[in-house]
Structures are given as structure tokens and as C-alpha cells.
From TrEMBL:
It comes from Colwellia demingiae. InterPro entries: AlkB-like, AlkB-like_sf, ALKBH3, Oxoglu/Fe-dep_dioxygenase_dom. Gene3D superfamilies: Alpha-ketoglutarate-dependent dioxygenase AlkB-like. The keyword Lipoprotein does not apply. Residues 108-205 form the Fe2OG dioxygenase domain. Keywords: Dioxygenase, Oxidoreductase. One of its GO terms (molecular function) is dioxygenase activity. This is Alpha-ketoglutarate-dependent dioxygenase AlkB. GO terms for biological process: DNA alkylation repair. The keyword Oxidoreductase applies.
Amino acid sequence: MDLFSSLLDEPINILPKDGVVNYYGEIMPLSDSSYYFERLFNTIAWRHDQALVFGKIIETKRKVAWCADTIDGKPFAYSYSGVTRYSIPFTEELLLLKNLVEQQSNESYNSCLLNLYHSGEEGMAWHSDGEADLKEQGAIASLSFGAERKFAFKHKFSKEVVALQLKPGSLLVMKGITQQHWLHRLPPTKKVSEPRINLTFRTIDKAELKYSVQDVKS
Ligand SMILES: O=C(O)CCC(=O)C(=O)O
Ligand SMILES: [Fe+2]
């Protein structure tokens, strides 16, 4: 039996030490995850991401969006990799998926970073999600759609690597001290030509959310 072919009875902590990364398997049937892939692909205002590298702004091939709770529909500002982003409101699908993920993981989230990788040639380099604006040791829930991709963790000190395949419709939750001790990445690969969408639900410290009306680029 393929253990990872469907929702697991109990999530599995794939890390041997210094943190918790729970893999839940597929939390929805393939027909649902295909439906959400299409909806997200077609309805989200995707943009190329930017990062500040050696004082220069570079654009990623991958596209992103950032959704957060808003007040009176006004966007919030959020900074990482030296660049400030502005939130778009949660769409109906995203709210539904947020509820599903909150129920499965028994945690709550107030924002979502969305990534669109057009093919296996696009990935994400080693990093940890330890931005100052994030709630300390808050859970980060990663929901995948579209192409199956490999995802890996590397211990910052021992350099131990743990990897798994992220199936469409699968849920992975990083918790506790994980971000302090482990890096993670989505390795690029020539073996995958199909696109993948990944949603990471997070909790941004409300006090850190900068309420921003002016300065918003449409
Ligand atoms: O695409 C993924 O599975 C992970 C994305 C990620 O690590 C991030 O957005 O911080
Ligand atoms: Fe990350």
C-alpha cells in the first residue's frame, strides 16, 4: 500500500529532531485539487516576485500573491527579502481552503502566501520562514496543487537532509522551533514540465501588519 496515496490517519512528523513538520497526505480528492488549481490559476492576480540581492532588486520567474485579512478592504503591507508587498483580500476559494487547513491542522492563520511555479525549472532556494513579522513559532501550513514536486529540509548545523514528495491536494505543516533549526527548499527539476501552485498559510503578528492605504501599486 502506498502510505502517501491519501489522507493519513495521523500526520507523520518527518523531522528526526529540532522541530515538527507534519505531513498529512492528500486532504482532498484529485478532482477537487484539480478544480482548485484551475480556479487559483485563473482568478489570482499573479505577479513576479521581487527580492533585494546585493542591493539590486531582482525579479523571480515564479509568480506570487499575498492575501491577508483586511479592514474595510484596505491592503496591508508585509516585508521580506528586503521588499514590501501589499495584500489582496482573501477570495472565496482561499477562505474555504483556509478553513479546511485550519480544521485539519487545528491551528488558525490570518494570511496566505501563494506561489505559482510554471514548470519544474522554477523552484525556491534554501531558506527558512523566519521573517520578523511572522508570529514567533507560529504554524505554517503548506497546501499543494498541480504538479507533484520534491520538497526538502536541511538542518542548519548537522546538514542532515530530509525530503518528501508533495502530491496535489496534500498538506504539510511546519511548527514550533522548525524555522530556527531547519532550512527548506523546492529544488528545480527538469523532470517536471507541469505547473504547480502552493499556498502557505501563516500568522502575521497583527501588531506588525502595517496598515497601508497610500503607496499601493495597482
Ligand atoms: O512551494 C513550496 O512548497 C514552498 C514555498 C515556501 O517555502 C515559501 O513560500 O516560503
Ligand atoms: Fe518557505
